[in-house]
Amino acid sequence: MSAPSVARARRLAAPACALLLALGLAACGKTNDPSSAENNGVYVDAGPVTYQLEVSRELNQYATEDSQYIRGLPAGTSATLPPTQIWYGVFLWAKNQTRRRQMTASSFDIVDTQGTRYYPVALSPSANPYAWTAEQLAPGATDPLPDTTASFGPTQGGLLLFKLNNSVYDNRPLQLEIYPAGGGKPVAVSLDL
Question: How far apart are CA 180 and CA 102, in angstroms?
Answer without folding.
Answer: 10
